[in-house]
Amino acid sequence: MSNDYLLVVDDHFGVRQLMCEFLSQEGFRVKEAPDGYTALQIASEEKPKLTFLDLKMPGLSGLDTLNKLQQIRPKTQVVVMSGYTQDNALTSAVQSGLVKHFLTKPFDLDNLRLILPSLLSNPWESSN
Length: 128
Prior knowledge:
The structure is a single chain. 42% of the residues lie in helices and 20% in strands. It has helices spanning 13-25, 36-45, 62-72, 88-96, 109-119; strands at 5-9, 29-33, 50-54, 77-82, 101-104. β3 (50-54), α3 and β4 (77-82) form a beta-alpha-beta unit. The chain starts with a strand and ends in a 9-residue tail after the last helix.
């Protein structure tokens, strides 16, 4: 069982539940947040190794949450999740380097299982 703590941020309960169950079955400790504000509160109190972040959320958007998360936990790996791959803000964020990892919804859990090791191989894992 891994001691890695992962954070799942999505306003849709079903997506959070699916991700949390999947990641828990893969041996990870998982916390969840229904919105960006809650995610920032959790991340400021604890140090998630990896955060899965929905792009389109009411209130604080995924990109706004990502910007603030980078300020409080700059070395935390973030995977943006969205069904909106043609979003101008997302394209700009990818081109600027703000978004390094992206999962298209609906995502394939078998594929996620295969890429998890590379997502977790963060060279800064013990810092910040």
